[in-house]
Design brief:
mainly beta; Immunoglobulin-like; 3-stranded antiparallel sheet; 1 helix; 9 strands
Length: 163
């Protein structure tokens, strides 16, 4: 894993960290999910939450993943657990008017996603908004996370055109 890739910069005049790392969505945070089979079936999705806590730490929580059997990759995090720094580089940068979240996951964390599916990757991104008095809503790119877990509503990410 070299470097970090920004997911999304966004404006937030009053960043509010989550109080509980297992409930990151209650503070300003990101949730993102991949449909590992491109099927639109909830059982095929892997979902993560990322947010900054008051102490400055930035946990990445794997919220869900497909039920798996057999040999798992060595660097695989089971659902409901925090993803370690060895498989997820993460940073939250202060930028004028808001925050920029950066994350880079090892392929093993997206297992069983395979490169053939990644050519037309089904994906959803949600930004949780807290104004200091509680979660007031969210913004999203493609739906499928915030209004029920429905990967049929995910968007499709395409690779950049060849040069």
């Amino acid at each position: 894993m070299q470097g970090e890739n920004p997911i999304l910069p966004f404006s937030d005049e009053r960043p509010v960290p989550a109080a509980d790392p297992r409930r990151l969505w209650l503070g300003d945070s990101l949730q993102f999910a991949f449909d590992t089979a491109g099927s639109g079936h909830p059982a095929d999705c892997v979902e993560f939450a990322l947010g900054e806590l008051a102490d400055g730490s930035i946990p990445v929580l794997k919220l869900g993943a497909p039920p798996l059997g057999g040999d798992l990759p060595g660097d695989y995090t089971v659902p409901g657990s925090f993803v370690g720094r060895e498989t997820a580089l993460r940073k939250v940068e202060k930028i004028p008017g808001g925050r920029r979240y950066l994350i880079r996951l090892k392929q093993s964390e997206l297992y069983p996603l395979i490169p053939a599916v990644a050519e037309k990757l089904r994906f959803s991104l949600l930004i949780n908004e807290n104004d200091g008095s509680g979660r007031i809503g969210y913004h999203h790119w493609a739906d499928g996370i915030g209004n029920g877990k429905d990967p049929v509503r995910y968007g499709t990410l395409l690779p950049p055109p060849s040069r």
